[in-house]
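Standup notes
- DV: blocked on the single-chain target, sequence here:
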Amino acid sequence: MGNTVNYVNPNTDQTVRIFDAFYQYEQVVPVAEYDAVNSYFQSQFGTTVAAGNFTVTLFRIASQSNIPVMTLLNQLQVQGQPELNLTLAYYLNGLRSKATLLGVNASVTPNYYVARNVRN
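- DV (later): unblocked, structure below
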């Protein structure tokens, strides 16, 4: 095989290690999938930091929900910005504590008897 830019060297690692130190999450993913997800989020959010954070989050969602990341990405790509925000909030709420849900406008009102036993 001749020299070409498109030739993949099988002796090199074709993966990316992603991690989130706050949530102590780490995963090794294929570089092609990482690039596709990251470039999509860069086109949507415009900043490298936001794109990187959402990229790691989408891989985390895919891992915990057992849905391939490319399936999730295809689902996001057909949505407009408002639907994208709702879909990401839905998946992120599955990962978060129920006390800190995203996109919920109604505040949680505790039971009267429980609330009065809580000290400030």
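- Follow-up: The CA atoms of residues 14 and 32 lie 8 Å apart.
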